[in-house]
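Sequence, please.
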């Protein structure tokens, strides 16, 4: 992700740039593969059961309907999740956190490191197997922002903590 150039600020250095873990694409991929099998079985069954169309041609309208339904299912349950995954980016620079997502309407989240109060992460059992987790960032206003399915979340947490600790000075 290219960060916008701002001449009023010193240059930023991107420390971490990542997308959600690929495991979020397993279910959409399975939908495509299993859907292809079901569509193939349905097409074969329809070809056996339906009478020949146009004097002996086995290309029946029901096969076209099955193919269109399969394409709609793949579009909705495989292509759209892949595009969502592809559009999500999480960036840690030496000055701020940046999150970006969205296919048609773009959402961008920016937080200066000085407004971060606490950084935590959460691992479930499956997260540990895949090396992912949810990063939880607490702001100065007490709001929590969660970034799910980040790969190597403990390393991201450590880098972010090292950046936030010197910024947060105790009040005197």
């Amino acid at each position: 992700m290219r960060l916008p150039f701002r001449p009023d600020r010193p240059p930023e250095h991107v420390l971490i740039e990542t997308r959600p873990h690929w495991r979020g694409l397993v279910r959409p991929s399975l939908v495509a593969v299993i859907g292809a099998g079901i569509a193939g079985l349905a097409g074969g069954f329809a070809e056996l059961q339906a009478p020949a169309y146009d004097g002996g041609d086995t290309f029946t309208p029901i096969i076209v309907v099955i193919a269109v339904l399969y394409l709609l299912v793949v579009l909705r349950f495989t292509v759209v999740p892949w595009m969502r995954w592809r559009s999500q980016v999480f960036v840690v620079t030496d000055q701020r956190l940046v999150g970006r997502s969205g296919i048609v309407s773009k959402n961008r989240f920016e937080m200066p490191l000085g407004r971060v109060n606490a950084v935590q992460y959460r691992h479930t059992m499956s997260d540990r197997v895949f090396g992912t987790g949810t990063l939880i960032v607490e702001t100065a206003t007490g709001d929590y922002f969660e970034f799910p399915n980040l790969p190597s979340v403990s390393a991201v947490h450590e880098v972010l903590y090292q950046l936030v600790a010197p910024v947060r000075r105790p009040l005197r």
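The chain has four helices and seven strands.
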